[in-house]
Amino acid sequence: MKKLLSILLVAVLIITAMPLGAFEFKASAETSGTTGECTWSLDGTVLTISGNGVMRDYTDSNKAPWGINITEVVIENGVTRIGNYAFYRCTSLESVSLSDSVKIIGWYAFMYCTSLENVSLGNSVTIIGDYAFEYCTSLKNIIIPSSVTSIGGGVFSSCDNLENVIIPDGITSMGEGMFSSCKSLKNVKLPNTLTSISGNMFFNCKSLENVNIPDGITSIGPSAFNNCVSLNNITIPSSVTSIGIRAFVDCHKFTNITIPNGVTSIDFAVFAYCEGLESVTIPSSVTSIGDYAFEECPKLTSVYYLGSKEAKAKISVGSNNSALDSAKWYYILGDVDGVEGVTDADAEYLLMHTFFPEDYPVEQTCDFNGDGNVNDADAEHLLMFTFFPEDYPLH
Ligand SMILES: [Ca+2]
Ligand SMILES: [Ca+2]
Questions:
Q1: What is the pTM of this model?
Q2: Are 285 and 311 contacting, i.e. CB atoms less than 8 angstroms apart?
Q3: 270 CA distance to ligand 1 centroid (A)?
Q4: How crowded is residue 52: how many other Cβ atoms within 10 Å of its Cβ?
Q5: DSSP string, 220-256
Q6: Is pLDDT above 90 for 330?
Q7: Ligand with smallest separation from the Cα of 306
Q8: Is the pLDDT of residue 337 over 60?
């Protein structure tokens, strides 16, 4: 009896001496509690978040109390914010439905939810935090509601099976690498309200075939379309003035590209390894071409230059651009105002140039009739060229 008592005593001592961590199984067995201004309850593997206000934020080390074995999440009306890391690594989670009261999705909220297929974002979300859906590898379709104005960096990065995404107009900010390594993404329509394309936005989107660059975009970030090996020719609108390094590396399907007037520099490796590229149009605004800009463009045979030979000679060209040397350069004469090719507006511009050369500068030789002088006769010749190009060739 005494022996049994001492064994019991020892057992009690051991249990009380055990670190708190040994009882963590208790916490994971809980089925309800509070999270920020809200409450949560678990029914089997279905989690419901209720209340009015924000959920609390979690981290990778300070995990959410409902564990990672949930299969469904219901966010009830009243909840305004999904906490950071709220459902991080919930690898069994298949379905999420946000109520219309949710305005903000915290960062990493659904990252590594590798079974997540059905996502309904409600109609009030304005901000989707960084990496919120990164590595949601089962996600095929998503509709971003029109309430959204800002999407963080890497939000859909590495969603390997994402095929369709609807992005509404109204969005003004889409973060770096938002779709990087979305290997199934084929077609994307970007919103007209966007003003820049962030760096790495479509990096490594190997299936991407069509994407628009909306009018109003002023800059294309570094590596924005790097390794988009299936991307068809793209129209770069005239609003673009800056194209980041490596922006179009390995865009194998490009056959011709027009750089808009206003771009002053074709930077490092922008079109490197565009192995199908046959022709490029370069505006007279370009003053420098960086190292490797056209490295390994073996099919590049035609360069259409919207300026004079004299102006071309002044372009600073970096190393490893041998394709530019072997290609034939065509000097597109007549587009004296530098917009929209040769039109009657150019004749008018040239006439004004003969009166006010400082107010109407030209970047090319304008002796279009070849008589040795630049005067109103050349403006007239240029106008006739727009109607009868074969009868009035430009000299
Ligand atoms: Ca013109
Ligand atoms: Ca002349």
A1: 0.79
A2: no
A3: 26
A4: 12
A5: E-TTTTTT-TTPPP----TT--EE-TTTTTT-TT--E
A6: no
A7: 1
A8: yes
